[in-house]
Amino acid sequence: MSATSYRFIIADDHPLFRGALRQTLETQYPDAAIEEAGTLEDVTARLEQGGDVDLILLDLSMPGMRGFSGLMYLRAQYSGVPVVVVSANEDPQAIRRAVEFGASGFIPKSHGIDIIRQAISEVMSGNMWTPPDVDLAADDGSGDLVQRLATLTPQQVRVLMMLSEGLLNKQIAYELSVSEATVKAHVSAILQKLGVESRTQAVIAASKIEAGQWQVGGETAEAAEAQ
Fold first, then answer.
1. What is the pLDDT of residues 124-152, one digit of tens each?
2. Helix 143-150 with 69-77: angle, nearest 10 deg
3. Which of 6, 84, 108, 214 would suit a FRET pair with 96, their CA atoms being 20 to 30 Å apart?
4. 10, exposed or middle or buried, with CB in 10 Å at 0-12, 13-18, 19+?
5. Are 2 and 25 in contact (CB under 8 A)?
């Protein structure tokens, strides 16, 4: 594939960083189509327009996302589109998590332009790129839970995100334009897949994986309604 047919999506809610990353890509791939998105909704809207996307450069902290939820959703919904996380979070555990959830690479924002170009080039060549000093094989004992989270469907990821925000079933149903019965079915499936018994336990389980990024806010919702 020639560079003229490449299509990139830069997903970051900071316009200045999007602009800097765009300049890097334009220098590296001068004839590529480069699109920008400031929210997860913007990203999905561009993907739903059709046409092949060769790479998404994804910040972990954008409106519509909590922790790795945006990455989980994109990998579940658009499994054929490579995603590289570009983040200010340089925690080795976060880098390992991103790879476990299907990222093709992880580029810390603190890295220089030359390294960013090298990383993108590696991924575009079909390889994975992460900082060389990060041990991807390190095991903190949460591998089983990561695998369970990775089995969630795109809609189940969205429901889990909303549970973590403390939303009730009827509120989730409104946001997703589905019935409350459908939401309850999603919640039941989430509990079964994660091997937990309650909404709060599901959110706490997710928070353990998110390296402090996915904040628990759903304790009161469970008291307000049953699954």
1. 999 999 999 888 776 666 667 778 888 88
2. 50
3. 6
4. buried
5. no
Q: Is the pLDDT at 112 greater than 90, yes or no? A: no
The tokens for 67 are: 């922790």
| 3-class state of residue 197 by DSSP | coil
Q: What is the pLDDT of residue 1?
A: 46
Give the whole-angstrom CA distance, residue 174 versus residue 186. Answer: 14
Distance of CA 116 to the CA centre of its chain: 20
142, 194 Cβ separation under 8 angstroms: no
Confidence band for 4, pLDDT divided at 50, 70 and 90: low
Domains parsed from the chain with CATH numbers: 3-124 (3.40.50.2300), 143-224 (1.10.10.10)
Q: What is the tens place of the pLDDT at every residue in 199-210?
A: 888 888 777 665
Give dist(CA 87, CA 115) in Å, integer: 14
User: pTM of the predicted model, to two decimals?
Assistant: 0.78
Q: What's residue 224's pLDDT?
A: 42
Note the Cα 199 to chain centre separation in Å: 21
Whether the CB-CB separation of 164 and 217 falls below 8 Å is answered with yes
DSSP per-residue letters across 108-141: ETTS-HHHHHHHHHHHHTT--B--TT--TT---S
Q: Which residue has the higher pLDDT, 34 or 62?
A: 34
Question: Both tokens of residue 74?
Answer: 């994109």
